[in-house]
Write a structure and sequence with these properties.
Elements: H1 3-13, E1 18-22, E2 25-29, E3 41-44, E4 62-66, H2 69-76, E5 102-103, E6 112-116, H3 120-138
Antiparallel strand pairs: 1-2, 2-3, 3-4, 4-6, 5-6
């Protein structure tokens, strides 16, 4: 799925969420989240935030979303420790690999996962996790 297809799919999946575009990224907030402190989902399109995923490549973007500690552990093992400088965490994953669910390069310690340019099948498999992230954001 290219970036526009993903944006369309996410807007259809979360029609009541508020999407904010800033810093070459899209931030999804649950309806009613007036303070907008933490999105439940982001889509990053450039290396401005980190270079781990090499998003400067043609057609690359990264979909990021929160998981519960149990969801994270069942997929990747224990939550890693955050770096003191909040830099890229070494989880053993190639953060530039396309269409592969993996820990987020920086926010894995907070239970975030990501996928670089997911295919349609991968996206469909992620929908339950994305909906769960949205439900948590509503509370």
């Amino acid at each position: 799925m290219d970036e526009q297809e993903m944006l369309t799919a996410l807007r259809e999946l979360f029609p009541r969420a508020e999407v904010t575009e800033a810093m070459n990224a899209f931030f999804w907030f649950a309806e009613g989240d007036e303070r907008k402190l933490m999105p439940f989902l982001t889509l990053v399109t450039t290396d401005e935030h980190d270079r781990a995923s090499r998003l400067s490549r043609e057609g690359a973007y990264r979909l990021n979303f929160s998981l519960t500690p149990a969801e994270y552990a069942s997929r990747f093992g224990p939550l890693p420790k955050a770096r003191a400088d909040w830099g890229v965490v070494d989880t053993g994953f190639d953060y530039a690999a396309p269409d592969r669910l993996m820990p987020h390069p920086i926010y894995a310690p907070l239970g975030w996962a990501c996928i670089v340019r997911p295919g349609r099948e991968s996206f469909e498999a992620l929908v339950p996790l994305l909906r769960a992230a949205y439900e948590r954001a509503l509370t």
